[in-house]
Amino acid sequence: MSPACHAPPYLATSSFEYGPGVPVFRSTDLRAWRQVGHALPTAEHLDLSEVTPSSGVLAPTLRHHDGRFWLITTNLSDAKGQLVVHATDPAGPWSAPVRFPTLDGIDPDLAWDDDGRCYLSYAGFGPHGSEGIQQVEVDLERGDVLTSRRHLWSGAGGKLPEAPHLYHVGPWWYLLIAEGGTERGHAASIARAPSPSGPFGGFPGNPLLTRRGTDSPVQSTGHADLVERPDGCWAVVYHGVPARRSSPEWHVLGRETYADEVEWRDGWPVLGRHIEPALTPDVVIREDLATAELPLAWVAPGRFARDVMVSEPAGWRIVHLAGEPVVVGRRQQHLHAAIRASLDVGAGVGGVSLRVDPRHELALECDVGEVRAVLTIGEVRTVLATRPLAPGAVLEIRALPSDGPWWSTARGPDRVEVGVREAGAFVLLASVDGRYLSTEVAGGMTGRVFAVTCTAGSLLIRRWTYLGADDPDALTAALE
Known about the structure:
six-stranded antiparallel β-sheet; disordered N terminus; Tachylectin-2, Chain A; Jelly Rolls
């Protein structure tokens, strides 16, 4: 994830196996963000035909140079190196990709010197694993690599040096990287050099950013990027996870974006106060699915959501295509959340679910006249309950606080409930420990998605409402 330096703050984040790819957000204060589009919005930009969970697009870098926004990233699923797109407006349209297929690695970055030379830095990988941070000079317009690659830095001692970002500040060139792996040992370290190609010397106080070994509610912090704001002040954005409950702790939202103030002291950046979100935890976000336009937050694994959803006067129709089930939905955005959906299955088969991937989900599967609560954990698929389903019934999934003492190994990050709403009351069909729908159990790097699935024929989403809040009492009150 990275904002464009020296421009009004924009943020681009990873999208992995989901299409459209690379959501782009805008802010005026780094506290409130609004999604404005996607940098890889169509199949022309992004090949999702071979994606698997947590593959696809990761770690984009967004930069502003010479009147254009440039975005570079890696699609792990197409083995074609690094891809670059550009736009005059981050909301789009974005250009067709230019590819650098010979650059084998991940997490690419772009920087320019005063003479206009463009430096592409990335985390290199070879037959024996990580090769540290590599750099070449490139022609972005033509997709040409102009120099042989050179090694820049391997970090301050942590494993997997990656996510390089290069900046020219005053007399120095700074190289900010991630290292330590993206799990609990994650960190960001920084070095500087008199030229963009080195030699780089590390900051004596490295790591610049880490939460490892602390009791911070946000862990696995790293993959950081510096941004100079329009007023000349600096900040850093980075990703982390809100790990919860007993050891080894679990997180369910995937990697989230956080921000801190930055001050420069003795020629090095130093982290200042945390930048709090504009909304307080007790604010409940409500999102209804209208028929006029599909919200930007709706995505599909291995597909583009707009390609399989058709707006009709009564709602959104999803049509099953040949092959795998069609899945569309929006991410769980809050620590506690719920959806309510009314589906017209008709001659089709489908339902709603809370999922991490196809092997980890709790679903309400609907057929003619019946709804089933089905739990999938790895190779195990279990029908937990069945119930007659009346036409127009409302399906409901809730991710609510778990019960029990905080130290208990029987207490996961939350409790996921599925049921139907009848006569205004929630009828519970099944309740599952939320750890089984966590990244620690499922593996990979993504979080949960509230989804609609069509496995045969077609179905119509007549109504859909997402409710979310980080304060559990606020969400519980909203559901009553």
